Amino acid sequence: MNKRIIVGAVIIGRNEGQRLINCIESLKSDIQHIIYVDSGSSDNSLQEALDRNVNCVSLDLNTPFTAARARNAGAQYLVDKCPEIEFIQFIDGDCVVQAGWVDMAYQYLLDNVDYAVACGRRRERFPEHSIYNQLCDIEWNTPIGEAKSCGGDALIRVSAFTQVGGYNSVLIAGEEPEMCFRLREKGWKIVRLDSEMTLHDAAMTRVSQWWNRAKRAGFAYAHGYFLHGQSTEKYNYKATKSILLWGGVFPLTIILLALLLTPFFLLLFCFYPLQIFRLSIKNISHNMSIINGVSYAVSNVCGKFPQFMGVMRFAKNHLLGRKSSLIEYK
């Protein structure tokens, strides 16, 4: 089979500037059919893509933007234009594809027909620029082998993607693991290959960005649990329960006991640094450096508070019948 004929690419982005140019250039040598889906950019992203002979789709401004909606629109355009396409490399516009990745992932899916998705190692381009970038880089380092989910960058089999109806365009985040859940329910498998896949530019330099990203994660966990929490797998149950406990129930209970009974109950907040210490030891035992192990533990524990806010935001929207809006961090 001719890889350049049956493998296409869908890039999504908004106001990515030079990052989009880098993304397109990283794909051109491997993939002939590239679609860029723009979510209301105010810069020259669309023109830069057109100048590089990339087909473009501009999302309707009257419908709320989501990454899921953008990916679905790109996939639909690509399959309609090139019905011979059998695999799609999805990639965010702030990423570049590493040399050799498409060949490896394509060959794996070609040889393993029961796998729907292949992903690899996503790395941060500038982890040294901020602790928040470094935390993202740690997060991207998922276990190698059969996996439950992938991230935004992945090579996906079109027949599997079509079977489950693609991404859930209503989700403002967490659309990749949610689709992977539905794929696994249909008997498909996901793999994380031991290969460099993409370089990502989180561009996070402020605590407010980290806070909003964590809030968005909490929203996504809650929405995913609402959709599939009653499944045999109890999708997102454990994560949502942890957020509710550590980010809401436990601290609010301590404060209430301190106000009604005695301030000594505030000493129970010591469980948080103890939890950080426990997770730090665990991280370091998994070959993280001391700095990274402690930083990641602090982020995981303290992140429960903005995540709790995200869960509450989802609950409020659902009870009031409101449509979800994006929670952006950059």
UniProtKB/TrEMBL annotation:
Sequence ranges assigned to domain Glycosyltransferase 2-like in this UniProt record: 10-129
Pfam families the record matches: Glycos_transf_2
Stored InterPro entries: Glyco_trans_2-like (IPR001173), Nucleotide-diphossugar_trans (IPR029044)
Keywords carried by this UniProt record: Membrane, Transmembrane, Transmembrane helix
Membrane-spanning intervals of the chain: 243-272
Record CDD domains: Glyco_tranf_GTA_type
Protein name: Glycosyltransferase 2-like domain-containing protein
